[in-house]
Design brief:
By secondary structure, the chain is α/β, with parallel strands linked by helices. The protein is built from 20 helices and 14 strands. It has a six-stranded parallel sheet with strand order 2-1-3-4-5-6, with helices on both faces. Strands 7-10-11-12-13-14 form a six-stranded parallel sheet. Bound molecules: cobalamin and iron/sulfur cluster.
Length: 526
Amino acid sequence: MKILLYNPDNGVTRNFMPHLWMFLLKALTPPGHEVVLIDGNAQPMDEAQIAQYVRDENIGLVGIGAMTRMIAKAYRIADAIRATGVPVVMGGPHVTELADEALGRDGGPRHADAVALGEADETWPLIVNDAVRGELKEKYVPVDEAGKERKPSLTAYPVIPWQSIDLDQFNLVPNAAANMLRKVGEGWGTFRIIPVESGRGCPYGCEFCTVTGFFGDSIRFRTNESVVNELLLLKARARSEKGQMAVFFIDDNFAINVKRTKSLLRDIIAAGAQVHWVAQISANLLRDEELIDLIAASGGKWVFIGMESIDPANLKDVNKGFNKPGEYAAVLERLAKRNVYAITSFIFGMDNDTVGAAERTLQQVRTWPPGLPIFGLLTPLPATPLYKRLETAGRLTRPKHWQEFIPFAMAHTPLKMTIEEAHAEVKYGWAEAYSPEALAKAVESLDDQPLGYRINIFLARLCFRGIYFPMMGRLAWPKVIAQNSRTIYKLVKEAVFGRKARPSSPDRESPYEDRLTPEVTGEVSA
Ligand code: B12
Ligand code: SF4
């Protein structure tokens, strides 16, 4: 049977990274089937096109995975496919929480023939076999023989055949430049960010997050060996096609068990499996100097930190009191000393936020090492404690906000400001943090660093800007380039003519300094 796994586009940004679930389920598909992957962010298709594709390619089963924000699109695509007579199975966090919605049991239309609840590593092969027999059940629940929920162990993790998977749709290097760039340095003909998981789960239970309910109560890890082998496979693939790979460790909290994270990073270094990587780690786990040394030495370049707010009252409200705004600066300095920078995520519209929250936040951000601040709104995702609290209090203004997804729009009324004021805070945050002046300052603040670091922060800021200011129109990029022409000119001039070397002076030598490969010392950073 030919199986299509499809992830709808998010309607805002183009694809920068594929979704792991597709590769994982492909690797877990029983032998004898052909599995094709389409990521709507990389290969946009409307309902008619996907239906045509399913007919033309003689697809026998379609699997669709989606977060809440893409679910409306996912349902439209599913409807179009089901109209061709091909069965659709849906999975992922949204349908896990609202299976009846997908199955049309809540009074609405039916969108899926079957739903896979929770982690589908063990149920997917059963689904495929049932589909072959034409005996799909409505719900697939991962349970043990006694009917108790079972979280798959990650100790026997499947090998994802990265060496042979078609990754053309995920190359971030434009086709026109690929041939030329293949000859630059070790080769830049391709550049891909690949999702890799080393473990699942986070027990912290932040009020707005679905993770603790979905994965959280049992934290599981892959073996170090399996992660290291995956990195080696990715490195080899990049080398063979004269390109580059960076890895996004998508674990919810990559250092949830610091001892284990250190041991994994040591093994990565020992095996020479360093790639440039990004991971999500909460601020409270970044106090350990040795951990930060290992992050840097193993190729860590960016850490995503869910700071959420600089107001401890807000943090307490959402059960994230373990975040201590007073230590944010120290954490970021500690990372920056090793040339690791942070994607700092903030949420506005929290219950203690008042007008001016964005500027107050930015006043702090401006005193920190340069990074990538991102701003969002408190969003009640289905089945989270936050959703239940707001529903009980009658504060939801759009209880089924996912049915008509609007980017950066609140679905409830904050306590100390209006919805419009909260929207204005987010807009202010993005506009200020990504203005040409702010970009120039970020580049300047790394003046004592090699050129690669400055180019890195500049390009990363340009890309992140697109999260709020969509870069979809034909003139979007030329306009942004024109606005930032002074900074671009400065960087290009230095690249061509060089400049007088200025010593870079790390305050603290890393004991792992001698282990750094040229690839991770910065000049060619991703
Ligand atoms: C990586 C990641 C991202 C990446 C993008 C996704 C990507 N390209 O990989 C980035 C960093 C960009 C991102 C951004 C956002 N994310 Co995010 N992200 C994740 C994260 C950390 C990992 C996803 C992952 O790969 N997990 C590992 C795989 C194996 O798990 P999985 O996807 O759930 O798949 C399993 C099952 O769900 C199931 N399954 C999934 N799909 C399908 C399909 C079929 C057919 C079947 C049978 C089974 C199945 O089987 C899989 C194996 O068990 C998750 C948290 C998490 N741990 O999952 C949050 C998460 C998915 N993100 C979330 C959110 C809210 C967001 C944002 C909206 C945040 C924001 N406010 O801006 C943005 C929106 C992104 C966008 N523009 O669309 C929420 C979604 C909750 C929800 N109900 O939708 C999650 C769950 C985290 C949370 N805080 O609750 N995210
Ligand atoms: S620390 Fe992050 S992953 Fe863990 S519960 Fe909180 S928001 Fe979710």
